[in-house]
Amino acid sequence: xxxMTPAQERYTxxxxxxxxxxxxxxxxxxxxxxxxxxxxxxxxxxxxxxxCDREFSEREGTLMARSKLSEDTVEQLLxxxxxxxxxxxxxxxxxxxxKTVYRFQRVATRRAQSHHQQVVQDVDVPGVQLDEAxxxxxxxxxxxxxxxxxxxxxxLLWVDFGPRTQDTAATLIAQVIARARQLPLFLTDGWKAYxxxxxxxxxxxxxxxxxxxxxxxxxxxxxAPKTLFYAQVVKVRNKTGQIMEVSRRVxxxxxxxFGKQLRLRQLGETIQTAFMERWYGTLRGLVxxxxxxxxxxxxxxxxxxxxxxxxxxxxxxxxxxxSLRQGRTPRTPxxxxxxxxxxxxxxxxxxxxxxxxxxxxxxxxxxxxRLLTPALQDQLSSRTQTPPVETIEENGKEAASLxxxx
Length: 406
What we know:
Structural class: alpha+beta
Order of helices and strands: EEEHHHEEEHEHEEEEHHHEEHHHHE
Low-confidence stretches: 378-406
Strand content: 15-25%
Distance between the termini: 81 Å
Helix content: 25-40%
Mean pLDDT: 86
């Protein structure tokens, strides 16, 4: 059977993979057309961009790229990873070798993280819940999972891995701020590192005024901007781990202003982190190596992190959330935050072409690096809160004065 030339409507989902092309990564631009058929059975179509004359395979940038597996097998592998089947069980169910499962995980997780970095930019996030979870690896290793969850849409903004330190917390906060349209409201547990990490990322320099003419000048310090709202949920446990007391405190913003912001942003009226804890329950249930008392612990740290990233991508775009349903219409977190208008099926997720732009990636990395640099070190003018300059009004009187020390 000789393959026929498909209709032009079929190429609306494809985009040019050439970064130097004017139509790079733009779907439904009318610049993609049929070129030829290739493969052993002439079943793979080669496409051509009319803007730059670049030829490429229809599988480039998808989960089918450079794969000899059939589409049904790839879909079955993806479903096994979505439901948390262990690697040996996935190989048995899909009738493939265990090394094939490892290769699929490596390719799928790298693509899931690249897709998240490219798509999640300039999103509307009114509030964020931050938390960290403990996980185990073999032999006797510990891996902390740090997650940022957008309130209202339950969209997972970022997932990071590393020790439970201030640097890891600052990296997580910087990723959230770099991808959000405005500074969101933050809710965390009682871990003290979040307070210092927030000041490191969004803190401004305050230079106290010296009182008198004798003595040393006060040293500048980092203070929270007026637009930062941050509260903690502190849980007190006994020796057996049972919760004895739960207290809520507002760190930045003031209790009254914080409560007003909760109501204005439609985030409820209670300071809580229940949605983040519910997400970790879902994560432990759908990733075999994260379950309690499991025998499927990971031996490889990259593979352990990759399983989490693949589930994050599927959770945002493929898995509908019951609390986001509107009538009888199912919705995913990506639909609630405005990144898509429908629930993706497995075939659509597999054939989604992804072409990474090096320039955009470099710009995002530079922005995150600037956020991670404390304002007291780089003396950035945008972060420095200098005393107002004395100005002369029309009547000749001095208008502003130096701010008093806090």
